[in-house]
Amino acid sequence: MFNWAKQQLANVAGTQEPEYGPSAIQAVGKQEGDPAYTELTKEGLKWSTIDSTCVETQTFYLFTDAGHIGFLQVIYNNVAGLRITVQFNCKIFYPNNEKPALWSSDPLENYGFDEEQYSFYADGVSMELSEDGSSYHIKSARNENSLVDVKYTRTAPGFVGGKNGTSNFGTDPNAPWGSMYHAFWPRCNIEGRIITKDGQLDVKGRGVFIHALQGMKPHHLAARWNFANFQSPTYSALLMEFTTPSSYGSTVVRVGGVATEGKILFGGTSGDVKHIESKQDSENDWPEPTVVSYHLDGKTEDGKEVSADILANLGERLDRLDVMAEVPGFIKTIVASAAGTRPYIYQYAPKGTTLKLKIGDEVKEEEGTLFTEATFIS
């Protein structure tokens, strides 16, 4: 009971948590009887909108045929059950950096959901899931520099890691005090347009959808993140990895998978991310990665051993986000008084990246486009 009380104080005040150790996190896919992954159903796409501190996001990544990379995103933030704010973000990187990146981030008013919590609405914004659960239609007239009308259609099954995509935090597994959830559509066709002040951008291409819920203060759940999103003509590969703060034993949790048209080749929670080379960022002292390897392994449906590897020389970063400077005040409230919290996100899209896929004794390689992030929080 005393640990629970200390944790509740940390949740509300943002203070550092006690040292609970690795037994206080029940990581996704690592509990007895858990499958490597589970195919995502429509039910798993519902907004949770829990009534305590959380950050819930639906993020739609895009890789256009013309070479643009970016994402559309709704962020739902609840600060200690006292204040809720909602934001719509649009970010576009242009091919060969021919223009500065487009970044718009707008607070939303009069937000709401349909009766079953599948679709989101706000003044000037809608994000609707189709009746059959296979496509999203995203519209935004919230910002005159990013008028959005884009449709994502799933072309491979979605999935979650383990049984339900959730890692639970707490010393009593039957009564967790926090959670982390991720659900993925690894491979989508996208169509539509984004109208900017410079003209119309045709977004025809390939996309990825991720629904995430951080059901506690974000800096209490994770100290670091790695994210890899690879798209090629044949394959889509995803890897999401976070490392907990020392309060949960600096435990590494990951989920990922590889899909092709109409099929998940494999998914699971085994693999690793290595920052093989890095350099010290002179502005904030974080070790900015320069060469990174991503590895996933598992089994196909017919029992064959399978692995996926990407080795990336990251080159010049696309962007470095100082989260405390970029985001609205509600995030500052969430991380207020958290000692040592300096969240920065480094974003890259190295050219000529190759996925090496080994299925049984067969090795396949294919070049594609990689978008990757390294996030340092505390």
TrEMBL record:
Its main location: cytoplasm. Pfam families: Svf1, Svf1_C. GO terms for biological process: lipid transport; response to oxidative stress. Keywords: Cytoplasm, Endoplasmic reticulum, Golgi apparatus, Lipid transport, Membrane, Nucleus, Transport. It is a peripheral membrane protein. It comes from the Eukaryota. Residues 216-378 form the Svf1-like C-terminal domain. Residues 55-214 form the Svf1-like N-terminal domain. It is found in: Cytoplasm; Endoplasmic reticulum membrane; Golgi apparatus, cis-Golgi network membrane; Nucleus. One of its GO terms (cellular component) is Golgi apparatus. Ceramide-binding protein that may transfer ceramides from the endoplasmic reticulum membrane to the cis-Golgi network membrane, and is thereby required for the biosynthesis of complex sphingolipids. Belongs to the SVF1 family. This is Ceramide-binding protein SVF1. It comes from Lophiotrema nucula. The lineage of its organism: Eukaryota, Fungi, Dikarya, Ascomycota, Pezizomycotina.
